[in-house]
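Structure ticket #2291
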Amino acid sequence: MFNKGQNQTVVRDNNMKLILFSLLENNMSCSDLADKLLLSKPAMTKITSEMIDLDLIVSGGTQDRRPAIGLGRKKSYLSINENVGVVAAIDFSTVNISVGLYNLNGKEIAVRELADAEFITKEVLARVAELLSGLMEQCADGRELLCLCIGASGKIDKETGNIVESIKFRDCLDVNVKEFFGKRFSTEVLVKNDMDLALLAETKYGALCDGVRDALLLYIDSGLGGAVLSDGQIISGHHGFAGEFGLIVTVDDDGSEQPYDCIVSVNAIKDKLRKYQKESGVQLLAEGFRFRDVAAKFKEGNPAVRRIVFRSADFVARLIAGMANMLDSGRILISGRVRAFGDEYLRRINENPLLGRRKNEVVYSGMEKPVLRGAVFHAIEASFDILITRRRVDQGLRREV
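Resolution: structure written out below.
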C-alpha cells in the first residue's frame, strides 16, 4: 500500500509518461498539453519544468501543424529530448531480418537488413549483433542505447521473454536471446511475439488506429501467425502464447490432419508446388524457385499455380470464419508476403460462403514492416520508464549531496 508521498510520486511519474506519449505524437505547448491531459495550466507548468530540468524534454521547438503566420504571441512548443538516448528494434518475423536504430521520437536513424535468413542459427544471431553494433558506432553519435526490442515468431513466455517454441528458432532454442543481446549491448532487452508487435503497430499507426476495438491480424508469410485485439486490448493468454493460429489443426485435401501453418503459409504453397511438379512431371518453376517466382506465375495466370494459391485462400477463409465467429471480431487484417497475390487472393477469401454476412470485412494491411514499428514503440515505452526512474534517482542523490 502506498503512503501519501509514494502516491504523489506515482501520479507524477504517470503524468510524465502521459506527457512523453503526447509529445511522441507531436510537439505541443504547455497549455495544449494541459487541455489534452485535463490538468491545470499551473500543474502542467510545474511538471514540464521538472521534466526540462531532468533533460527528458526541451523547450523552444516548433509544431508542423502550427500556421506559419498568425496574430499574437507565438507558443513555445515542447518536444522529447532526442539527445538523451536511442532505441533499437530487430524483426525476425520474415526471411529478411531488419535491424533498426531510432531516436526517442520514433524517427528512423538507420535500418539494415540481413537477407535470406529462413531459420535462425547462432551464426545468424552473431551477424545480427554485428549489424546493430555497426549502427551504434556509425549512427548513434555517442548516445546511449536505452532499450532493444526484438520481435520473434513462436511461443514467447510473456514473463521471462524466453523463446519456448519456434520453428524459425528451432536451431538455437538453447540460446537465451534476451541474455545474448543484453550482455553484448549492456541494455534493457525485450523479446516479444512478432504478431503482438505487428498488431500494436496497427493500433497506433495503421488500419486499427481509428477506434477499432475488436480485430484479428493474420500474418501469412514463411509461417502463419496471428494476434487478437479484444475490447481494445491485445490478448496474450496465460503464458503469452495466444494467437498461434498456425498451430490449429484441420483436415487437408488429401484427408490428412495438418496445422494451418502447413497448408496456407508461403512455405506450404511452395511445398505443394514442388509436389505437383514431381507428381505431374510438369516443370512450372526452376529448381530452387523463390516465392517471388510463385507470385509472378500467379499473376501471369498459370492455371496450376492459381489453383494451389486459391485453394490456400479457401483454407484461410475457413480459419477466419471460425476465429471471427468465436471472437466476434470487427475487422480482419491480412499481412505478410501473400499480399503479393493482390486483390484476387483477397477476393477469393471474401467471397467464400463460410464467411456469410462477414463478406468484405477482410482487408490487407497497408503497413510496411509492422513488426519493426511495433517493436520501436514498445522500446520507446520502456525507455520512458527507464529515464523517469533513473532521473528520479539521480535527482534524489543530488538533493542528498
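Closing remark: DSSP finds twelve helices and 17 strands in the chain.
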